[in-house]
Automatic annotation (TrEMBL):
<dbReference type="GO" id="GO:0016020">
    <property type="term" value="C:membrane"/>
</dbReference>
<feature type="transmembrane region" description="Helical">
    <location>
        <begin position="181"/>
        <end position="201"/>
    </location>
</feature>
<feature type="transmembrane region" description="Helical">
    <location>
        <begin position="98"/>
        <end position="122"/>
    </location>
</feature>
<feature type="transmembrane region" description="Helical">
    <location>
        <begin position="221"/>
        <end position="242"/>
    </location>
</feature>
<dbReference type="Pfam" id="PF01740">
    <property type="entry name" value="STAS"/>
</dbReference>
<dbReference type="Pfam" id="PF00916">
    <property type="entry name" value="Sulfate_transp"/>
</dbReference>
<dbReference type="InterPro" id="IPR052706">
    <property type="entry name" value="Membrane-Transporter-like"/>
</dbReference>
<keyword id="KW-0812">Transmembrane</keyword>
<keyword id="KW-0472">Membrane</keyword>
<feature type="transmembrane region" description="Helical">
    <location>
        <begin position="309"/>
        <end position="342"/>
    </location>
</feature>
<dbReference type="InterPro" id="IPR011547">
    <property type="entry name" value="SLC26A/SulP_dom"/>
</dbReference>
<feature type="transmembrane region" description="Helical">
    <location>
        <begin position="53"/>
        <end position="69"/>
    </location>
</feature>
<feature type="transmembrane region" description="Helical">
    <location>
        <begin position="362"/>
        <end position="391"/>
    </location>
</feature>
<feature type="transmembrane region" description="Helical">
    <location>
        <begin position="129"/>
        <end position="148"/>
    </location>
</feature>
<feature type="transmembrane region" description="Helical">
    <location>
        <begin position="154"/>
        <end position="174"/>
    </location>
</feature>
<dbReference type="InterPro" id="IPR002645">
    <property type="entry name" value="STAS_dom"/>
</dbReference>
<keyword id="KW-1133">Transmembrane helix</keyword>
Length: 496
């Protein structure tokens, strides 16, 4: 039995993250992530068509809030390209206030979906759809940079090339400092020292000089406002949850730990609600920054909290310096993000030769629809539907019907093998020789499963055809679930 002093010592033992070694790792990881968040938060703000401070504030509030309410420790959530692409039309057509209302409504939808257990649906998301989602996101991020490479001085192209060279070459020498940060600092110092006239972050909008302020969006509280923002809020909620749950699953695998996906789902909603009330553009989990954090050794919520806190301190205290960053540097960062996001293995000739054509078709459908509509949620839905149709078609061909005649010729046994559902059972009625079969027929379903009403209706039709010819039909071998489904529906589905 544990002594009283030992028990008290156990109860008062400090959390693991307060140990000097872990604390140092969490603090340094949070600082590196904060530095890496700045260029992307600004870039995603520009994609969304808002001032950089809107994205920076969103990154701060998302990270800090999810440090407390999220379900995946050490995961980083902030303003992202996926959300920026979804909400950009709201800003373009209706303004920033409608964007804020969209973010709040999107957060409410996420919290509701999280409470309803939508995270459990992730297991129904095919890998080919996830690959298509990732590839489409990469393409959209890249195409969003093209306006900043059109009708600009030739020096912009030179700066982009130098930035890309730094981000490709530096990691081969050292990974102590994020290569995007080095590229941004070097290009900014060069353009300032050379007094080069190129587009800068300051040209895109005012950076924050104070802390974010709590407030409500200035929009009419009418049905018309709801009609305008609801489609974008739903798309934002679905895209945000999808990317966040995908990232959480990835971190689970890297750290060999399990996260609470349901908590993460409603936590994302809470974070977006908070972000909206503070005037942010919303966001979700960031795969790139999360990998930086986890690979730096972070494993607790402290690194997530500090990443958001350090980000706010950096942009508020160093706003004038951030305004000098050339847009070419950020374009280079986003090009590297798009290249790193794209799953190049998925389009390698060897992979395409080995991959079933149906899997490739699902990936291509997801990418094509997403790029065409600029809506990641629509692309994922189309991809899932395509996968379902192709799967049903493939499984339908796995049903077989074999027959054997008893030696005395009085009974014929049909043995059905496979999964019986709407796609496979509709043709089942044509697999029997009604006119020539003997007076007794047995259908053996011991190697089959009945999954839906369509199958029961087909069996009813078969029974009717035999009864019309005076043939006695017996159906045997059904397992418990098939028997239960058949008993409940047989004879109650109307005419055939």
């Amino acid at each position: 039995m544990m002594s009283l002093p030992a028990a008290l010592s156990s109860r008062l033992r400090r959390p693991s993250w307060l140990s000097p070694r872990v604390l140092r790792t969490e603090v340094l990881a949070g600082l590196v992530v904060a530095l890496a968040l700045i260029p992307e938060a600004i870039s995603f703000s520009i994609i969304a068509g808002v001032d950089p401070r809107v994205g920076l504030f969103a990154s701060f509030t998302m990270a800090v809030t999810l440090a407390f309410v999220g379900g995946r420790p050490a995961m980083i959530s902030a303003a992202t390209g996926a959300v920026a692409l979804v909400v950009a039309p709201v800003v373009r057509d209706h303004g920033v206030e409608y964007l804020i209302a969209t973010v709040i409504l999107g957060g409410l939808i996420q919290a509701l979906l999280g409470g309803l257990g939508v995270a459990r649906l992730m297991r129904f998301l095919p890998r080919s759809v996830m690959v298509g989602f990732t590839n489409a996101l990469a393409i959209l991020i890249f195409t969003a940079q093209l306006p900043y490479l059109t009708d600009v001085p030739w020096t912009v192209y030179a700066l982009v090339a130098v930035g890309l060279a730094v981000m490709v070459g530096l990691p081969r020498v050292t990974k102590a400092i994020p290569a995007p940060l080095v590229a941004i600092v070097a290009l900014t110092a060069f353009t300032v020292a050379a007094s080069m006239s190129v587009p800068t972050v300051g040209d895109q909008g005012e950076l924050p000089s104070s802390l974010p302020v709590l407030g409500l969006p200035s929009v009419p509280l009418t049905f018309e406002t709801l009609r305008v923002i609801a489609p974008y809020a739903l798309a934002m909620a679905l895209v945000g949850l999808l990317e966040s749950l995908m990232t959480a699953k990835l971190v689970d695998g890297i750290t060999d730990t399990h996260s609470n996906k349901t908590r993460e789902s409603w936590g994302q909603g809470v974070a977006n609600i908070v972000t909206g009330f503070f005037g942010g553009m919303g966001g979700c989990a960031m795969i790139g920054q999360t990998m930086i954090n986890v690979k730096s050794g972070a494993r607790t919520r402290l690194s997530t909290f500090l990443a958001g806190l350090f980000l706010l301190v950096l942009v508020v205290a160093l706003g004038p310096v951030v305004a000098l960053i050339p847009m070419a540097a950020l374009v280079g960062v986003m090009i590297m993000v798009s290249v790193g996001t794209f799953d190049w293995h998925s389009i390698h000739p060897a992979t395409l030769r080995r991959m079933p054509k149906s899997e490739t078709a699902v990936m291509v459908a997801t990418v094509a629809v997403t790029v065409f509509t600029h809506n990641l949620a629509i692309g994922v839905v189309v991809g899932v539907l395509t996968a379902m149709v192709l799967f049903a078609r493939r499984v339908a061909h796995l049903v077989s019907v074999d027959s054997v005649l008893d030696p005395d010729g009085s009974t014929k046994i049909y043995r059905v093998t496979g999964q019986l559902f709407f796609a496979s059972s509709n043709d089942l009625v044509f697999q029997f020789d009604y006119a020539n079969d003997p007076e007794n027929v047995v259908i053996d379903l011991s190697e089959a499963n009945i999954w839906d009403a369509s199958t029961v209706a087909s069996l009813d039709a078969i029974t009717t055809k035999y009864e019309q010819r005076g043939t006695t039909l017996t159906i045997t071998g059904m397992n418990d679930s098939s028997e239960k489904r058949h008993s409940a529906l047989a004879g109650n589905l109307g005419s055939h």
